[in-house]
Each structure stands twice: as structure tokens, then as C-alpha cells.
Automatic annotation (TrEMBL):
It holds the Pfam family TIM. This is Triosephosphate isomerase. It comes from Duganella sacchari. PANTHER family: TRIOSEPHOSPHATE ISOMERASE. The keyword Cytoplasm applies.
Length: 242
């Protein structure tokens, strides 16, 4: 049985009440065998989510972490803090962080190392912008983003990370990459990584396109933004792993 990973990225959405209601539905649902479900909550809600999820098969993730271990970094949250509060996964280098917070490949690699040191599974996001795709630079961009990781991580660390291929033009636009386009990018990433990592697809995954994407040989799961805020849609996508 193939192991698929389905991760919800709630971004900066939700409230105590809405998150409780969303998790109640997710926890009550039966998770498909061979499918791991993860939710990445905003930091203030992590402890509450860890409490609700304890004893369930659903894992918790954070959306970012500090590149530093501890110290005078006001506003930052360290990897060990996330681990202590029940996180198993952490998103790193989401395109929104690369764009709005100017995170470059070196910072992403550094955060990835911090996560691994603390026992978190880093989910490193890579992907090209619309301009980069249109100008034929997709492979060059992906190889550069992967190179930052293969340079910073040991070969055993590399086997412990998850990659999320998220073409920037597909995030939040309603226009997913086609299954063939995504498969091609995943195969490229796999070739440059040269390590047995899971590679997830993210970018407008919805209940009606999930099965087609997840059926591709190099797509090991999905990272879901908008649709993960709706329990029914999220669970339908998770069931597409079957
Ligand atoms: C994301 O932001 O990681 C994402 C994939 O968003 P959406 O599913 O809304 O495109």
C-alpha cells in the first residue's frame, strides 16, 4: 500500500471556535489506510490543536519556524518550542513567506536543518513563479531550490525531509497544474534530489482534481490551502488517496 501524505495549511485563518469545529469533524472521520493526515495551524492555536488531536491519527504541523535555536529574536518561534507543543511537521519556505518575508533558499535550508535537529519533519516548499514558467525557467528554478537543500543537508538528513512542489501560479488561484504538468515537475525534483523523499503537490487541490493528481507516480500526497478550511472538502481529498 502506498503511503500518501495529506497536509492542510490553514494559513492565517480561523478562530478558537472555528478551529475546534473543523478539528472535531476531521478527528471523527475515518482516515484512509495508508494515508497520513496533517493540519498546519497558526501558532497561537498549536497547543489547543495538540490537545484536541492527542490520541487521534491526525498529526499537527506549524507553518514556519525560526532559523535560530533560541535567544534575542523577538516574535520568532523555535523548532524545539514547536516540538514541545506537539508539532510533528513544519512548513518551510512557503511561497508566501518567500514573497512577503523575503526568505531565500539559504534561509530555507537553514530552517530545514533547525527543524531536523529538533525532531520535526520539514515540509520544504519549492516552485516557480508564473514569469519563470512562461520564460522556460521552471527546471532551472527547481534545481536551484533543490541544490540549496542538497548542499546544506547530509545525505541521511535529506532522506528525512518532505518536499512540496507548489507552482506559485497555482496557489490560491483555482487553477491547479494539470496532473501531467505536476508529474513532470515532481520527476524533475526527484532527479535533482536523488533521495527517497516524499514529494507533495500543492496549488488549488480540490475534491474534483485530487484523485487525478494523487494517481501520478511521483506525487506522494498533497498540500492543501483553501480547501483545508472546509472539513468536507479536506476529507474528500484525503479519501482520494484510496
Ligand atoms: C498553499 O497555500 O499551500 C496552497 C496550496 O493553497 P491553495 O490550495 O489554496 O492553492
Amino acid at each position: 500500500m502506498t503511503n500518501k501524505l495529506i497536509i492542510g495549511n490553514w494559513k492565517m485563518n480561523g478562530s478558537r471556535a472555528s478551529i475546534k469545529a473543523l478539528l472535531a469533524e476531521i478527528v471523527a472521520a475515518e482516515v484512509a489506510p495508508g494515508c497520513e493526515v496533517v493540519v498546519c495551524a497558526p501558532s497561537p492555536y498549536l497547543a489547543m490543536c495538540a490537545h484536541i488531536l492527542s490520541g487521534s491519527g491526525v498529526r499537527l504541523g506549524a507553518q514556519d519556524l525560526s532559523a535560530h535555536e533560541s535567544g534575542a529574536y523577538t516574535g520568532e518561534v523555535s523548532a524545539s518550542m514547536l516540538r514541545e507543543f506537539g508539532c510533528h511537521y513544519v512548513l518551510i519556505g512557503h511561497s508566501e513567506r518567500r514573497t512577503y518575508h523575503h526568505e531565500n533558499d539559504a534561509a530555507v535550508a537553514c530552517k530545514t536543518v533547525r527543524a531536523l535537529e529538533a525532531g520535526l519533519i520539514p515540509v520544504v516548499c519549492v516552485g516557480e513563479t508564473p514569469h519563470e514558467r512562461e520564460s522556460g525557467q521552471t527546471e532551472a528554478v527547481l534545481s536551484q531550490q533543490v541544490l540549496a537543500l542538497t548542499t546544506a543537508l547530509s545525505s541521511s538528513q535529506l532522506t528525512q525531509i518532505v518536499i512540496a512542489y507548489e507552482p506559485v501560479w497555482a496557489i490560491g488561484t483555482g487553477h491547479s497544474a494539470s496532473a501531467d504538468t505536476a508529474q513532470q515537475a515532481h520527476a524533475t525534483i526527484r532527479r535533482y534530489l536523488n533521495a527517497p523523499c516524499s514529494i507533495l503537490y500543492g496549488g488549488s487541490v480540490k475534491p474534483d482534481n485530487a484523485a487525478q493528481l494523487l494517481a501520478m507516480p511521483d506525487i506522494d500526497g498533497a498540500l492543501i490551502g483553501g480547501a483545508s478550511l472546509n472539513a468536507k472538502a479536506f476529507l474528500t481529498i484525503a479519501h482520494a488517496c484510496l
